[in-house]
Design a protein that fits this description.
The complex is a heterodimer.
Chain A: H1 3-7, H2 13-36, E1 45-55, E2 65-74, E3 77-84, H3 96-102, E4 104-108, E5 112-118, E6 125-131, E7 140-142, H4 147-157, E8 160-162, E9 169-172, H5 178-185, H6 189-192, H7 246-250, H8 252-267, H9 276-294, H10 331-336, H11 347-357, H12 361-371, H13 381-403, H14 407-412, H15 414-427, H16 443-458, H17 477-481, H18 486-489, H19 491-495, H20 504-515, H21 523-534, H22 536-541, H23 546-554, H24 562-583
Antiparallel strand pairs in A: 1-2, 1-7, 2-3, 3-4, 5-6, 5-9, 6-7, 8-9
Chain B: E1 11-19, H1 25-34, E2 47-56, E3 59-68, H2 75-78, E4 87-93, H3 97-101, H4 103-113, E5 119-125, H5 137-147, E6 150-153, H6 162-183, H7 190-193
Parallel strand pairs in B: 1-3, 1-4, 4-5, 5-6
Antiparallel strand pairs in B: 2-3
Classes of the chains: A alpha+beta, B alpha/beta.
């Protein structure tokens, strides 16, 4: 059995990295607060201490780590720390280094989204602390009780509200408060925070690793400003499928490993960049899984134990989760992003807002122009109007170029003829079921044809739909072993960015979310991974071969839930971080294909 | 893969539909499997699937039809779909000479990527557009004979010969399969009974390396 291996946290670079990332983001944010602070830190006061609070990094009792949980008040800010005891329990096998991985160093409550308490019928009470970045600490087990007291103490110092949807969830800094929500949508998170004071706290046990400061927390940063935020069904207590599975939580280390494994194997390969160890381990693991399966020839059922556990089993656990999706950005709120002349004041926060909620349909006409780079964010209303008129005449010029090609010219101009034939063929069967394109002689169809043809003329060599020469990199281990070149089963997903998999309205929503390039440029790839991960157990358990997999993926059309997969994609993206980005081969088109002449050299003057 | 009890069949035959874009592959498939026809069906991206189970010479055959994208830009990936196919329906449009001229290119695709023993049927589709016909039946017929293909003309719109086309190729595949198991002295292979896909190339020394793998 490989169980011990799977649970062995020692030397787990992933876990370390994830912890580092989590703590680094906390530290960095603390740091930035510090810069804006003018006052000297007050002396810290310990307002709560609880001994024998433990984490269970693995299922093995011998590897549990006990420590001391504290709440520390400094000025008006409250911090939480959990420091493992220096003397490991008698049979502990974890090294000092490992224990340090789990140390929670002075996390300010402004960075905490929620705390969930669990009171299992058997066993110890524990809590799960979720950061506003979406990351969560491993469960903290209260061997000597005291969860209630812990929460009560917090409540004395920061705003703590019991979730309306789940009595076991306590939300810190309740953003459902209308005032706070309004303020936060105005991007004034710090003004809102209850305890957003300098966090220049010194806790003697905690030492900040110098390296941690280098880690970019951009993907997480500012996330405490998430506006109308609700603790949603994931945390509903009556739904066992959604309950946070403690077993999976204990396999915390696997979370990152598999996220990165999947990502890296989907995106790129084995350049050694610090993850070599993980990849080696993966190589070792998979054959074992296979050989075990061979003992079960003829089985009809899916023995799930043979499938390596998915650390990001999103429905069960959300150690890492994307933030709850929001309602679309509407007109009233849109205005708040603009100055009096129509400039977008903070494009980053606008993109973030659109990322989390998309756009009301009536805003798309205007805002898509910004997202797609047609207008610049700092353009005024007037400049946008002007640009529109200029571009319109440019369009007409190019359009008149192909319109002026005579039939005789066209006969000699093979490429144009072919392109035109292709477009003509496609246009008559594009979205004809949509009201917009419905019916014979629909003028919108002609408009679409003109646009496509004009575009093909504008960018002749690019071709009008050549988005993808993508994912030709080595493949996910399983797929590789089963001759399932990922290129093929993800092909349609990527080529038309899920247009055939989602309803039309959802497609527009997905696209605008992808175009924000928030939190990363290749979110559509993470979206693919998110969808695949949902079915990985089925895929691997049923040992789908190339044909079966292709058919299976094809038949997912119409069954992909946009919001939950977006949340998962966001979580994957955060976890993969810079390393994920590094694995994406250079030249891979981003979610929003950029019109970069250097990337797509144009052939000039072939036309006339 | 686990087999559903209601999914009883003696053989599973994989058949690919190939040919230029817009010749009517998807509609041949939908006519055959769902008795549907859509003038404005979406262009296929990559591949789509449908199955239909039917009786051929007293056997229950499950036909798994792979409807591939015809557009040139997908060529690199569609060839991967030929693997394991026992039959190919190579479709052209009787009103579009270029689609017929391209048949030889598609044959080359098959020879390069599919199993050497794949059964190929040439199909001239859209016979309902009589006034637009631009490829003579005789020309296609003689080409098919020269290349050793079966040949039929169909209209997916009018449902003419669609059933016959699929029946013919499935029967031909079945004949080859059963002859093969006869000549090799084996009984009708048990594995096939289990609903497994069989490969024509099978255990013989393969004449051609399989694609992509």
């Amino acid at each position: 059995m490989q169980e011990p291996e799977l649970h062995d946290l020692s030397d787990d670079a992933d876990y370390a990295a994830s912890q580092q990332q989590a703590s680094a983001s906390v530290m960095l944010r603390s740091d930035s607060t510090k810069q804006s602070s003018s006052s000297e830190p007050d002396s810290a006061e310990i307002v709560f201490t609880k001994d024998n609070v433990a984490i269970h990094p693995t299922q093995f009792a011998s590897e549990r780590i006990s420590g001391r949980l504290k709440l520390i008040k400094q000025g008006s800010s409250l911090f939480m720390t959990w420091i493992p005891y220096n003397t490991p329990s008698s049979n502990a096998t974890l090294s000092e280094k490992d224990r340090n991985l789990y140390t929670i160093r002075a996390v300010p409550f402004t960075d905490i989204r929620s705390i969930r308490k669990h009171n299992p019928a058997l066993g110890w009470q524990y809590i799960i602390v979720v950061l506003s970045s979406g990351l969560a600490y491993p469960p903290l087990y209260f061997y000597n009780g005291g969860v209630k007291e812990f929460l009560a103490t917090i409540k004395q110092h920061v705003l703590l509200v019991r979730s309306a949807e789940d009595a076991n969830v306590f939300i810190v800094n309740d953003f459902q408060n209308p005032l706070q929500r309004t303020l936060s949508s105005l991007e004034m998170p710090r003004a809102v925070s209850i305890a957003g004071e300098p966090s220049n706290i010194s806790v003697n046990e905690s030492t900040l690793n110098e390296n941690e400061e280098r880690i970019d927390s951009g993907a997480n940063d500012g996330s405490s400003s998430v506006s109308p935020y609700r603790v949603r069904s994931r945390q509903r207590v009556n739904d066992p499928a959604r309950d946070i599975s403690i077993q999976v939580l204990e396999k915390f280390s696997l979370v990152t490993r598999f996220a990165r494994e999947t990502t890296s194997q989907l995106f790129g390969e084995t350049q050694s960049n610090g993850f070599g160890a993980i990849e080696r381990r993966t190589l070792e693991e998979t054959p074992r899984v296979r050989s075990k399966k061979s003992f079960n020839v003829g089985e009809k059922y899916v023995d799930e134990s043979l499938v390596p556990p998915d650390p990001l089993e999103f429905d069960k656990l959300s150690l890492v989760w994307g933030k709850p999706r929001q309602t679309p950005l509407g007109s009233d709120e849109w205005i708040t992003f603009l100055d009096s002349e129509g400039r977008v004041m903070d494009s980053e926060s606008l993109r973030r807002r659109i990322f989390y909620g998309g756009l009301d349909h009536n805003l798309r006409k205007e805002v898509w122009g910004l997202l797609l780079g047609y207008y610049s964010y700092d353009s005024t209303y007037a400049e946008r109007e002007y640009l529109k008129s200029v571009k319109k005449s440019e369009y007409e010029t190019i359009k008149s170029q192909w319109q002026s090609i005579s039939p005789a010219q066209a006969r000699r101009f093979t490429k144009f003829r072919e392109r035109k034939g292709l477009i003509d063929k496609d246009v008559v069967r594009t979205d004809r079921l949509l009201a917009f394109y419905d019916g014979d002689e629909n003028p919108n169809v002609t408009v679409l044809r003109d646009i496509l043809l004009t575009y093909s003329f504008y960018n002749f060599d690019l071709g009008y739909c050549q988005l993808v020469e993508l994912l030709d990199s080595p493949l996910h281990k399983y797929f590789e072993q089963h001759d399932c070149l990922n290129y093929f089963f993800c092909f349609r997903w990527i080529l038309i960015q899920f247009k055939r998999e989602l309803e039309f309205e959802s497609t527009m929503r997905l696209w605008e979310v992808l175009w924000t390039h928030y939190p990363c440029e290749h979110l559509h790839l993470y979206f693919c991974v998110a969808v695949l991960k949902r079915y990985r157990k089925k895929i691997m358990g049923e040992r789908m071969d190339f044909d079966t997999l292709l058919k299976f993926i094809n038949e997912l059309s119409g069954q992909i839930d946009l919001d939950s997969n977006l949340m998962d994609a966001e979580a994957l993206c955060i976890w993969a971080g810079e390393n994920g980005a590094a694995r994406i081969p250079p030249g891979t088109p981003p979610s929003l294909p950029i019109d970069d002449v250097s990337l797509y050299p144009q052939l000039e003057d072939e036309v006339l | 893969m686990a087999r559903r009890p209601d999914d009883e069949y003696d053989y599973l035959f994989k058949v690919v539909l190939i040919g230029d874009s817009g010749v009517g592959k998807s509609n041949l498939l939908s006519r055959f499997t769902r008795n549907e026809f859509c003038l404005e069906s979406k262009s296929t991206i990559g591949v789509e699937f449908a199955t239909r189970t039917l009786e051929v010479e007293g056997r229950t055959i499950k036909a798994q039809i792979w409807d591939t994208a015809g557009q040139e830009r997908y060529r690199a990936i569609t060839s991967a779909y030929y693997r394991g196919a026992l039959g190919a329906l190579l479709v052209y449009d009787v009103t579009k000479p270029t689609t017929f001229e391209n048949v030889s290119r598609w044959l080359k695709e098959l020879r390069d990527h599919a199993d050497a023993n794949i059964v190929i049927m040439l199909i001239g589709n859209k016979t309902d557009l009589k006034h637009l016909r631009a490829v003579a039946t005789e020309d296609a017929q003689s080409y098919a004979e020269k290349e050793g293909l079966s040949f039929i003309e169909t209209s997916a719109l009018e449902a003419t010969n669609v059933e016959k086309a699929f029946h013919t190729i499935l029967a031909e595949i079945y004949r080859i399969i059963s002859k093969k198991s006869l000549s090799s002295g084996e009984p009708a292979p048990a594995s096939v009974k289990e609903g497994k896909t069989i490969t024509v190339g099978g255990p013989e020394p393969t004449k051609k390396a399989c694609c992509t793998s």
